[in-house]
Amino acid sequence: MPVIPAPPRAARTPALLGTQLLFNVGFFAVVPFLALVLTDDFGLTAAAIGLILGVRTFAQQGMFLVGGVLADRFGARRTILAGCAVRVLGFATLALSLLAPAPQLALFIGGTVLTGLGGALFSPGVNILVADAEQRRAPAGVRSRASLFAWLSVAGEFGAVLGPLLGAALLGWGFVVVALAGAALFVLIAVFLALALPRRTPAAAERGIHGRWWSLRDRRFVAFSALHAADLLAFNQLYLALPLQLARADAGPGVVAAMFAWVSALTLVLQLPVSRWCHRVGAARALRAGYGLSSAGFVVVAASVVVPLDASGRVVAVFVAAGLVVIGHLTTNPTAQGLVPRFAEMLPTGSFFGLLSTCGGVAVLLGNVAVGALLGWTTVPAAAWLLLAVPLVVAAVWAPPVAASAGRASGDENEAGGC
Hints:
Blueprint lengths: L12 H16 L5 H7 L5 H17 L1 H11 L1 H24 L5 H32 L11 H23 L4 H22 L22 H18 L4 H8 L4 H29 L1 H24 L4 H34 L5 H26 L7 H22 L15
Helix pairs in contact: 1-7, 1-8, 2-3, 3-6, 3-14, 4-5, 4-6, 4-14, 5-6, 5-8, 6-14, 7-11, 7-13, 9-13, 9-14, 9-15, 11-12, 11-13, 12-13, 12-15, 14-15
């Protein structure tokens, strides 16, 4: 009679949340200053900088599917630690490119790509462990509660706030010090995780499941991932289209910084209450509301460029839009991640988490090119904003029915469980 292996021990939730916080501290201490280095040390144009940073983003988001498949095959713990090692190598390469007698652009670009690949390895592994911990939680009963994915978002946002402060404090000693400090932090993170994570974590090979690319075989999930990509494209406009709109309103860097502070404040204050609301109303309604709110944000900006407004009115419109987009993202993103185990059912979840992020990465890469071109189109000044709103409307109509079908094959009819 074959011996059935014992289920892997669950990772402790505080360790996972602390890991997400430290990941974002290390990431945001370094990456926001890449554009500054490319300008000051390498003298590149804005277009060249945008291309390099776009490649970095795609190396992370676009490769999530590969990272998820590797996590399914070798286990979440191994891929998380491998991702930390790759990111350490990436940050060290960034520093090395500036320590040479003359700055080495090729080496710097290689370092930026490695930082993205590191995230593509460890982020799906973290999602797998969070989903595993979520499924092992005691039932909430009649009390609504925030999902662990919502807590993960809050922990990550704290890291996103603290990271740039750390990087800015170190930048006075030069970017080399910033990059090496980021590398040292990820070394410490890797040591911590090597001790904190259980040695046996979910892996397809350990569970006797053979095969690859499970998510690509599920047409429902492929459709859902393609529709949900509109959310990441919308959220990415906090860093592209909305700051450009503020610049057109003659708003200075202080106003842009205030917008990001507004976004962080909304995330920290509203993520957990929004997640509890999602748990009460169910996945389908939460998705419909979230996509609708984000779409409304872009409609607000579209109206502001058509209706004659003064500079202050256009700034207010951008802040309103940013708020709606963020609240929409707080609603849809944890909900979509919480649905992944229901789509996967008894299959490994790594490739499913990977596909969800990879579709978003492709949408950002292609969508930003289109949005950037349309922002300069004076014939229809609202075209870029309507282009961003339309995919969200489509997602609001089509994604909820697909989400409601998740888990039906195994008899799971509890729609609220996906939040």
